Amino acid sequence: MEAPPDNDVLWARSLHFTHPDGSPGLAGVSIAVREGEILAVSGPRGSGKTTLLRCLSGLEPVREGEVWFNSTPLHTLGPAHRERLRRDRFCWIGPEPGLVPELNAWENAALPLMLRGTSRRRAKTTALEWLERLDIGEAARKRPHRLRQSERQRVSIARALAPAPTVLFADEPTAPLHRADRGHVLRTLTSAARSHGITVVLATHDPETAALADRTVNLLDGRPVRTVHLPEIPDAEGRAACSISV
Amino acid sequence: MLDLRLTRAARPAVQLRRLLVAAASAGTGFLLLSCLGYALKRPEAAGSAALRLAWCVVPVAATVYLALAVARTDPGTRPRPGLSAIGLGPARLMAVSSLVTALSTTLGSLVALSLFLHLRGDLTGLPFDGAGASFLAAGKSLPLAATLTLLAVVPVVATVAVALALRPSDPRPVVRPQRRYLPFVRQAGGPAAGGPAAGGRTGEVEAAGGGGAAGKGTPAAAAPAGVIDPRFTSPSLTDKPDDEGAGDTPAGLPWAVALVAAGLTAQAYAGRTPPTPAFTFTTVPTGAGFFLLGWLLTAVGLVLAAPGLTHLCGRLLQCARPGALRLLAGRGLMAEATRIGRPLGILCAVTAAGYAVTTLYDSPGRPFGPLSALGALVVAGCAFATLLTVAVETRQGRAETTDALLRLGAPATVLRGAAALRAFALLAFFAPLTLAIAALAAFPLTR
């Protein structure tokens, strides 16, 4: 078992995954994420993007294949070790903000830092700085239900960036937003990640979003492919319009 | 049929909760039938029989409350997208919930009836050498209509209550009353933002600005209006309540404290001249009216005060620079104050009443009868089971938050620690309070 090369921070080799109900998830994915880059994992819905991110971040146990993080074999670690790794090195942004409803914005953003044992004062300073940077400084004392969706999503991004993770996993971070908000959120995310040298693995089905990344890996049916263009549907002329009883 | 399949395919914990409802219903039904037996045995003592029946209101209320809590927690009858897609929406699920409640309470009533008949000796011979013949009216024929009416009380009331509580309703947008940030208004809780946990109040609409009315008063919206004193719309004033999580402070704590005080006062007043005849459940002398009124006021006050006190408890838990553990525990308690507080208050009231009653019956001349014991068991058991059920409901409601925290990598020990801290704080706060109130309530009786 050899360790991956030095400039790859995260590395998967022939990763297979089957969901507990038996439906296929990933079928032999091998990717390498370099340090400080923004890697887009693109593909239509159901192509295994989220599953790949969950496997890479240690949320799902890997049974077939290997996942390495900085020469740590994730596929051999137990759940407790993976949890600590997730807390200390990774951060996650989902399609839903997933904020704790009873904490206000800065407390939400400071929560990962506090969970790592940072003092409250330093956690608060860092969280407020990040909220300022993401342009929601004046909402820092509001609770999530009084924020709009895009603001909540930015709080979620601040929460992910505040502890300065090594790798940031963003799973369709702009899915529930309109296009204007989407662009804003994505630009802040990518620029913050670039200026702080944070590696980002970004799952998206949107080619515009993928264009902001350094590199794109296309997935289709759990496999990395060069192109996701499917063969054209043959001309429908001459067929009955609404026939489902073939 | 699909409805029944939904109820059958449930986990053992859910079935256990339904069985608890059935057991409570059985106990209550047996108490009601015993009242009937007493009335049959002594037709001349109508007043005493009516008093016994009146006391049965307490177990009936406790049983209905438990049934309500169990129906709310039932995962089989919660609106689900899959079922909604085939037309089994909230309205039908409300019907299913009512049906399940009706089934379990009727089962309990049937158990009560068969037990009652068995003890009377209608089914087999009179058991236990006829020890229970006094209140069971053995030997007299049981009037059918009265029996059925009494047995139907719990199922009917519980079913109607569940249907009313779970009836589907659209979230109404809260029309925010125009608030002027005057000092005397602000100290009464600040902007009462309807949090997501605050039941019917959802959909906080940000009606900032509003044509110069002092609507929300966020600085950006209020500044162009120009007519509002900036003192009242400065960020430090408008934002502070949110910082402290005061958005959904349960109202009514002052009233509840006043009620408790009034109740204790009424008891103390009645205690100046203790009623000379034996004061028990079944024989209330004329002078004891104030006692009962005082107990009632104290109990209602405790129930009303508990949400506010729970909120206060959470606030105390998270004050003074909290870390992640105290923050999660305290804020969680503040957010769930209303939901947890009510059954907690009921449990406190029941405990206090139990303490006072034990003091009352502590003399050798007044033994604690089997029916009183059964009633006390039903009420206390229902109160405790309701609190546990509501705790389960709270955990279900916070499942998404817990998931988000786990995805963040929050250690499970922190989450468990927060839950334990919450429970410990509530126990440490409410146990001395309940004991103090119980001691005060029992004090006039023991002089």
Automatic annotation (TrEMBL), chain A:
GO terms for cellular component: plasma membrane. The keyword Transcription regulation does not apply. Signal peptide: none annotated. Pfam families: ABC_tran. Keywords: ATP-binding, Nucleotide-binding. One of its GO terms (molecular function) is ATP hydrolysis activity. Coiled coil: none annotated. Residues 10-246 form the ABC transporter domain. SUPFAM superfamilies: P-loop containing nucleoside triphosphate hydrolases. Belongs to the ABC transporter superfamily. This is ABC transporter ATP-binding protein. It comes from Streptomyces griseofuscus.
UniProtKB/TrEMBL annotation, chain B:
Keywords: Membrane, Transmembrane, Transmembrane helix. Coiled coil: none annotated. Residues 186-225 are annotated as: Disordered. Residues 216-225 have a biased composition (Low complexity). Residues 191-215 have a biased composition (Gly residues). The keyword rRNA-binding does not apply. The chain crosses the membrane at residues 20-40, 52-72, 93-117, 144-166, 252-270, 290-312, 344-361, 373-392, 423-445. The keyword Transmembrane applies. This is Uncharacterized protein. It comes from Streptomyces griseofuscus. The lineage of its organism: Bacteria, Bacillati, Actinomycetota, Actinomycetes, Kitasatosporales.
